[in-house]
Amino acid sequence: MDMPRWVYRTSMRLRALFRGGALDRELDEELRFHFDHLVEEHVARGLTPEAARREALLAIGGIERRKEECRDSRGVALVDDAVRDLRSAFRTLGRAPAFTTAALLTLALGLGATVAMFTVVNGVLLRPLPFPEPDRLHAVSLAPSSYAFRGIPGMADRTFVAFRERDRTFEHLAALTTYKANLTGAGDPVVIPVGNVTTEFFDALGVRAALGRTFVPDDGQEGRERAVVMSDRLWRTQFGSDPAIVGKPITLNGLRHTVVGVMPAGFDFPRGSAAWSPFIIRLDPGNSWLVTVIGRLKPGVTVGQARAALDAAIPALPEGPGEDRARWTIGIFPLVTLLVGEVRWPLQLFAAAVLLVLLIACANVANLLLARASAREREMAVRAALGASRARLVRQLLTESALLSFLGAGLGVLLAHLAVPALLALAPVGRIPRLEMIRIDAWVLAFATAVAAAATLTFGLAPALRLARRRFAGTLLPGGRTIETGQERFRAALVVGQIALALVLLAAAGLLARSFVKLRGIDNGFDVENVVRMSVELPEAVYPDPDVQHAFHREILARLSALPGVEVAALVNWLPLGEMHLNGDFRIEGNPQTPAFNVDKPAVSPGYFRAMGIRVLRGREFSDSDQGSSSGVAIVSRSVAGAIDPAEDVIGRRVTLESRPAPEDWLTIIGVVNDVKQTGPSGRSHAAIYRPYSQVRRPFFLSHMTYVVRTTPDARSVIPAVRSVLRSVDGNQPATAIGLMDDVLDAATAGPEFYASLLGTFAVLALALALVGTYGVIAYSVAERRHEIGVRMALGARGRSVLWLVVRRTLTPGAAGVAIGVAGAWFAARLLESFLFETAPTDPVTFAAVALTVFTGALLAGLIPARRATQVDPVVTLRHE
Question: What was the pLDDT predicted at 18?
């Protein structure tokens, strides 16, 4: 029975695929047999052996061409050719180790930086949230336009309660805030971040407890036993993974809480929470708290529908004093926006920067390939003479480029594996969210593969097409040479592009660096050198009234002042550059108009201004005589003094911090001090009215305190003693923060420093690659024109004229690259405007310095081969030619 044709074809293709070598030998023997038979026939007809062989070759049409046609007929030509091209590419690259090493290192740097940045971007911005149906999770913002959200969606607590009752588009709505709590009774006392969440929180996210349960509606009722859910990390570190933890009590801020559940490993939303407590909203007609609101949309409900429902609900929602519903803002954002916050734009910016580095690397490799193409003209000519088509030559050259690219991508992935942890370690603590999602996985490898393929086309296609289009006439002749002006112009254009891209990056890095220098040089209004700070949060259950709080603070201050090396110890409730501050309006005696600006309202102890290095401009500091039993006094900052009296002669004038002041609420001004940068060096200087803490009677203003201790120069050595003072006064009271004020200032400027350093690294890498590319082009040009240079020198040209001849070839692309780069940087710098401090995006000093640096670097890169050109021996060169 005859075999079906399709079965025969399939079997032949499989045999050709897996036994191609044997088939090639059979094919070679068969063609050789036919060739010899034709030669014998022509000899029998009277032709000479040479003529007979020529006629036989013409009749067959070329043995190699016939072999190719037979291989194509097998149906596996693509696989067969790809394997053959790949083997040839390995051999070709192996015969040029210097070229291969340079190309691989260049690609590894470009691809490694790109893969590392994509790994971070993928983990932070692109990965879906680890919750069921994360596309239905959103953050909701609804509040007057005057509210300062600082980019965080939210709404007033009373607005949330009213909106939750009326909404029909969200399946679950939850409000949340965070606070720090003192955990005691589980080893050493520690401060842990706690998520204060309404009972719908876990249902909205769609997560369940690994042990026990999450909150139920009854947990949010007044008078119920206090419940708490703890994180897996807290359960393991503080409670030894106790499997019977559910139902046991723990103490938070001096209050007993019952553990009702433990969450799965890795869950710590929001903001790295170690535990969660039920948020019981207590509405106060006179005050309102801003809360973050998240919700899960009902199935089938779109964001547009939810926004329309939110807009329609506004007329029925309560208004606060002086609020206007017509000026309320509405926002519904994907929940990931809440997590990534302000880091989205910097990551996108750095991703664009690293792509520029990759383009420069690709241009460098393209120049290497073009330089090497001239050395391979004879090889390509032989291939073409043997019957290879242009398409076949392009395919072979692209295979070599692809091999280079994918090997470079492999090295780049290894480099990224090392670079990503280093990058995250350099980033300021807490600046990059979702760290647990940042890892090299299949998506990153797929991205590396795609980038490698794109890089192959970027740097490999143009050299391959140019070399395949070349006319090889004369190349096979002894001493045959071709010099193509178009190719030289193309390589010069690549150098121009490299220089321009490097200048754009360097200008951006220069602007960020100049901005950071100005930021660190700003006068913050205080001196942090040799100052230790220690913050505490006194729990209401343990320190319920101001008398107990005053006694605690007096004892701590007395013991701190007695420590060796301490010059002065003081306290403040709202520390400059701290996490919290409070401001509001004030009134001036004799002036019925409320001033048009708010003031900070810190409570401080005597010696605070000396401890913090804040200058007293008029009057005196607080003293021990300014007690609760004495008349109220205040010290105002310079801005407040100027608002009261342009001459700042305000000693003895009176102000109040109350909206409806009683007679005892008026404070007599006893001094004027400098304004300070309360929220950070990049912010405005804040106006402030200081009060002696001993005259403050509200527990809220006394519970959060920071002690500041000015010491002798060895401030760090005093920290253990400062910590021991706290333990000696209350062994169950941990410090929420302790360290040097220098570190606080460093943390306040860590973001700009990190951005400037990272972009600076990319810029230096880009500039180095661009200068190496410039050097390569000029060096190759010199090597290609050794004969011309030898002739010039033989005819009497001096070294200076030869030097200028080569340097001139550097000046043109260098100047063009700088000009294009400056224009590109002028447009690109506007993207950095939000990152700059007291620095214009078109800062002329930065642009001039960067342009001069890049042009000088390009000139030096061309000067090295130019000096070599002056050392050419015309006799040796002409004899060789």
Answer: 46
**Both structure tokens of 512:** 């960020």
CA distance 52 to 59: 11
Owner of token pair 């930065």: 846
- In this structure, is residue 357 part of a structural domain? yes
- Read off the DSSP letter of residue 621: -
- If asked whether residues 375 and 465 sit together in one domain, one would say yes
Quick one: which of 212, 217, 177 has its CA closest to 200? 217
User: Beta-carbon neighbour count of residue 130 at 10 Å?
Assistant: 15
- What is the phi-psi region of residue 831: left when phi exceeds 0, alpha when psi lies from -120 to 50, beta otherwise? alpha
Largest CA distance in the chain: 136
Closest by Cα among 735, 714, 741 to 611: 741
Rounded distance between C-alpha atoms, residue 306 and residue 542, angstroms: 45
Question: Of 310, 342, 374, which marks where a domain is finished?
Answer: 342
Amino acid of residue 716: R
Verify that 507 and 543 share a domain, yes or no.
no
Is residue 532 situated within a structural domain?
A: no
Least confident of 35-49, 181-195, 347-361, 599-613: 35-49
**Run of H or E residues at 689:** strand 689-692
Give me the domain span that covers residue 444.
343-476+486-520+750-880
How many structural domains is the chain composed of?
4
Listed in sequence order, the residues at least 6 apart from 307 whose beta carbon sits closer than 8 Å to its beta carbon are: 330, 332
Query: pTM for this structure?
Result: 0.81
Could you tell me where the DSSP H helices lie in 218-324? 232-239, 303-313
Give the number of other CB atoms < 10 A from CB of residue 330.
16
Query: Do 704 and 666 belong together in one domain?
Result: yes
297 within a domain of the structure (yes/no): yes
What are the structure tokens assigned to 259, written together? 């553990």
Task: Determine the Cα–Cα distance for residues 732 and 728; give it in Å rounded to an integer.
Answer: 10
Tell whether 167 and 313 lie within a shared domain. Answer: yes
Q: Please count the residues of the chain.
A: 881
Looking at the fold, whether 177 and 234 belong to one and the same domain comes out as yes
Do residues 724 and 766 both lie within one domain?
A: no
Question: What pLDDT was estimated at residue 321?
Answer: 56
**Claim to verify: residue 859 and residue 804 sit in the same structural domain:** yes
Please provide the DSSP assignment of 251-290 as one string.
EETTEEEEEEEEPPTT--TTTT-SEEEE-----BTTB--E
Indicate the residue among 75, 97, 116 that finishes a domain. 75
Structure letter (DSSP) for residue 124: I
- In tens, the pLDDT along 718-735 reads 999 999 999 999 988 999
Same domain, 506 and 552: no
Q: What is the pLDDT of residues 353-381, one digit of tens each?
A: 999 998 898 888 887 777 776 666 666 66
pLDDT score at 8: 43
